[in-house]
């Protein structure tokens, strides 16, 4: 409507050329805004993952311990012991093992995730008729939850093979079966077929949907409440704090599903025995039977250590870059 009004004013005042130029500029701004959202989301995800890569690897190693370990070995496991083992046996760089593929996965994943969330959110507000009205807290929470869930499912589906590769590279310790991203993709395709690249996708989507839904809805709700009660606090610090809390909430709620996802992704490596031959519920039941209820949260401590700074950094970086790109585009 604003564009059309400005165009009519331009024509009536004899500035048709200027008006046409303005319409072109508006179209360009729309493309720049979309590109900025994608870039901000991708860089935020890659940066936060690189910062927390050591803890991410520790989480994965703890999650898969129960697949081929006896009860005695599991009782001896500790974060400090595992970190010392990696440092002594594999060196400092090993804490970032698989980080290249993590970035290769996280850049498109985070880009799609944030971009899809913004658009699903706009769509939900439009469909529910809340776009031009002041919505209640519960209505906003519903929109953020659904939009976040759909965004997580979209992003996970689009980038899943890279997530599988990342898990297998990070889980390697003494025996090196995969040597890099392309080698891993080729080996999985050869040994397990093309569908092997999507092993564990169903469990992933069951976990990722609620996880991202909780993360976005908790983040948006906390940030909205914080800004309404303390409007003068730094937006960057507010995003960092609210992002960290949202990460704790989503991880606690969906960690058992993430644990099953990791173990499913590692089934059949190098011809090893398939441990879990049932679906999600059957796998959860077997873990409880063999490792106890605590087995469902194996690796939750390094996960918290990773999530608190990781999700906070991700949201903070995204919001900061979004404001930077918005300010940059306004000067063009």
Automatic annotation (TrEMBL):
It holds the Pfam family Mito_carr. It is a multi-pass membrane protein. GO terms for cellular component: chloroplast inner membrane; mitochondrial inner membrane. Its main location: mitochondrion. Residues 7-23 have a biased composition (Low complexity). Belongs to the mitochondrial carrier (TC 2.A.29) family. This is Mitochondrial substrate carrier family protein. It comes from Capsella rubella. The lineage of its organism: Eukaryota, Viridiplantae, Streptophyta, Embryophyta, Tracheophyta.
